[in-house]
Amino acid sequence: MATYELRLSKEDIENGGFKEVLMEIYINNVLDWAVYASSSKQDGVYDKTSAPDDADGDGDYDDDDKKLFLAVANAFTKMSAYDKRKKKKKPANK
Ligand SMILES: [Ca+2]
Ligand SMILES: [Ca+2]
Question: Average pLDDT of the chain?
Answer without folding.
Answer: 91
